[in-house]
């Protein structure tokens, strides 16, 4: 069917539609829209709740013999309540006790005046990507709101994030039995941060702590690990440590947990280190070969395949061959424990930490100026604790009993099988 087009009358401008009206706030964040929607709804709920409490205390306005003559209405006065992290002015009804001639406080009003959780709610919105300036714009879009400048938002976020940092540095870990420890150094705001993530015997994940350091050196990392132990990081079922291959981290782990602690070096880091010595035109070929070798189901098969690759690499690039040979057996620890098929997806790399860091960067990418170490650590801690609330159990958690049994056997498979 042909389309029919209609013309507007001559000399008559088209009537603007409601959708053409400019938005009251430039920010298109979902959080801004939520704040704008919550304030009027919450205000209406307060205006309904307060008269209901007055009715329960003093009875209907027109009743005189309702059995509750002791309490009477006493007009109204200006007041304010906290809604959606914003202070909103309202008219508060009052009641008084006839015998004592004293005011009877309304429990609903007292509850709404208590700013419990206001810093937490604002803190989560700022972490979610709503800047202090956008928050102020959202507040200005609601005429009833007051007391929320960008500076006050910033101060409240500092308080909330400082509490998060204190929680991360001080919380105890003796409420769980731990089985796996993942350590990795990451760049954050032009600094190096070493992050510790623990996995319990039942598969739950938790951010154990972080330390800001110039390099992943043994002294700093060992002190960091001892602090975790002092805060209750106990491993009665044994311990598997997953590292990115940094020598300082490895030395610190052996100093704190013993020379015999099994270490699984990240296969992804090892592969990328080897490829960094090769021309880009050869990356796809050698990546496939390395992945195929690591995918072998047994320790002997995987070790044999990797040693063949070392020999094949040597004529083309001796540096790449040495890189693959260095620490080769530690990249096969899960194979030696005979749990690679069940738990390799979770523990053959440091991806559990890498994914956390990716989400941290998504929450902090809008910050263009980092002023102090405290600011960096507060954001680093706050974002991780917020992300931690969404953690799920590791994949393959139902097979962690196999890992416990293997750790008790202390790597019964030979370390240097042909």
Tell me the layout of helices and strands:
Elements: H1 30-58, E1 71-83, E2 86-97, E3 102-104, H2 107-113, H3 118-127, H4 132-140, H5 150-170, E4 178-188, E5 191-200, E6 205-213, H6 218-230, E7 240-243, H7 247-257, E8 263-265, H8 267-275, H9 283-294, H10 299-313, H11 318-325, H12 333-336, H13 340-347, H14 351-364, H15 373-388, H16 400-408
Parallel strand pairs: 4-7, 7-8
Antiparallel strand pairs: 1-2, 2-3, 4-5, 5-6
Helix pairs in contact: 1-4, 3-5, 4-5, 5-15, 6-7, 8-9, 8-11, 9-10, 10-11, 14-15
Folded structure, characterized:
Helix 1 (30-58) packs across helix 4 (132-140), helix 8 (267-275) packs antiparallel against helix 9 (283-294) and helix 10 (299-313) packs antiparallel against helix 11. The chain has a domain at 30-167. The chain has helices at residues 30-58, 107-113, 118-127, 132-140, 150-170, 218-230, 247-257, 267-275, 283-294, 299-313, 318-325, 333-336, 340-347, 351-364, 373-388, 400-408, and strands at residues 71-83, 86-97, 102-104, 178-188, 191-200, 205-213, 240-243, 263-265. It starts with 29 loop residues before the first helix and ends in a 10-residue tail after the last helix. The chain is built from 16 helices and 8 strands. The protein is elongated, with a radius of gyration of 31 Å. The strands form 2 sheets. A 5-stranded mixed beta sheet has the order 6-5-4-7-8, sandwiched between helices. Strands 1-2-3 form a 3-stranded antiparallel beta sheet. Helices cover 47% and strands 16% of the residues. By secondary structure, it is of the alpha/beta class.
